[in-house]
Amino acid sequence: MRRGRQPVWAAALCVSGALAVLAPAGAEPELMYRLEAGDRLLYERRATTRPLDGGPPTAEIDDQIELWCVQRREKEAFMLVALTRTTAGRAEPARAAVLYIDEGGRRRLPAEVMTRLDPVEPALDLLPVLPVGAQTAEAWTTTPDVYQRAWRCMSRGPDAGQQGGTRVDFVVEDPLGVGDALGEVRTGTYWFDARAGVVTRLESEQQDLLNRTWTHVSAVLRERTRQTPEWAARRTEEGGRFLRALGNEDRFVQELTARGDQLPRILERLDQLWSAFKSDIDVRTVSPFWTLADAHRQELRAAAEVLEARAALALRWLNRRAVPWTLQDAAGQTVTCEAARRGVVVECFWSGDSAAALRVLEPMRKLQAELSTSAVRVLGYNLDADLVRARQVIRQCGGGLTQFLGGALVEVETLPELPVVRVLDSKGVIRGVWVGWQPAYTTARDLALELARPRP
Known about the structure:
- The chain is α+β, with helices and mostly antiparallel strands.
- It has helices at about 10, 110-115, 120-125, 180, 230-255, 265-280, 290-300, 305-315, 335-340, 355-360, 360-370, 385-395, 440-450, and strands spanning about 40-50, 60-75, 75-85, 90, 95-100, 105-110, 140, 150-160, 165-175, 185-195, 200-210, 215-225, 325-330, 335, 345-350, 375-380, 400-405, 420-425, 430-435.
- The strands form two sheets. Strands 1, 2, 3, 4, 5, 6, 7, 8, 9, 10, 11 and 12 form a twelve-stranded antiparallel beta sheet that branches. A seven-stranded mixed beta sheet has the order 14-13-17-16-15-18-19, with helices on both faces.
- A hairpin with a 4-residue loop joins strand 11 and strand 12 (about 215-225).
- The termini are far apart.
């Protein structure tokens, strides 16, 4: 794995050398994170993908991962997680998230972060959940993540080959069936330095049975340094502003699906948002948030076509009648839209092609439960062209919802990305649109309930 590539802010930091928190001699300390304000952990990660039947690598990815503890309150740490990726020699803009973890690694995720976790997931692997509460230190199952996945862990004890670090083997379990639908099987091992309170190494393998590939991942802790309490306090304040900027960005992006004709103005406001965030950072303190603001502006500019497609969808759909259809349901029965769309309806368009498009089904089940006392219906449309595949993923992931085989809709409904959720009033007119996965569709629920409320 290559070394030496470091972000701008890391190169200028004044570091205090490797730090370690030591337990009393002769005692085997419990597994817990021992992070203090100002700590910075630098990892190097490589992912190599090969065909399942052998052969040379088809893809190699190098990541540099930085985990910053910017604040420590009692047993909880406020963390900045940053990942810089290089693929085929091309560096991508850094991706980042802020979150809270306790001493056992249990996460508390701000709402603004939940929809942005995918790009930084490799970094989160280096903050695994440890045994907590009544769980034994020999075997435990982690608390579910935001996608309801859990790691089933087995401790193998100190490993002399890794400087005595505790070896933990794990298997990723996905009770929602998303991993099964995508043909993904993931296992791995990490080593935890109980005295220093950090992961020092991670090795994992993921099989992709649909694409007939397997990916080997190796991540190694290269450096642990610490900044001053004053430096950390400034980063804590910036972390709060970072979250507020993400929240404002979400509001601007959602505005695209309400006012698609305002695309140029909204894109300009998005750029100004991060320009203003960056200008408020004291450059003399060498803040990682300064570089991340620039990276985020690059990311938004690169996503301009995607945002333009969302705006076009809003202009085509909003305040217009939904296209009529006759489709088969999951049982193979032919159903007309007049029979299915009775009253106010929440519709969800999804497929079995991506994790995001499959993960929407659990929030839809929760939404249906929240609407159970109302007259609002929730309908799902699987857009896979292969009917065998469509029925398979409905069985694996789509239970508990009214589902239709909607592959034919692709010919008349051009969707920029999946999933897409929309709300129709009792006359079949589209009144709200949401593009992309969300952990909860609260605004869609509220709109549906308002539309279903009896009028005087």
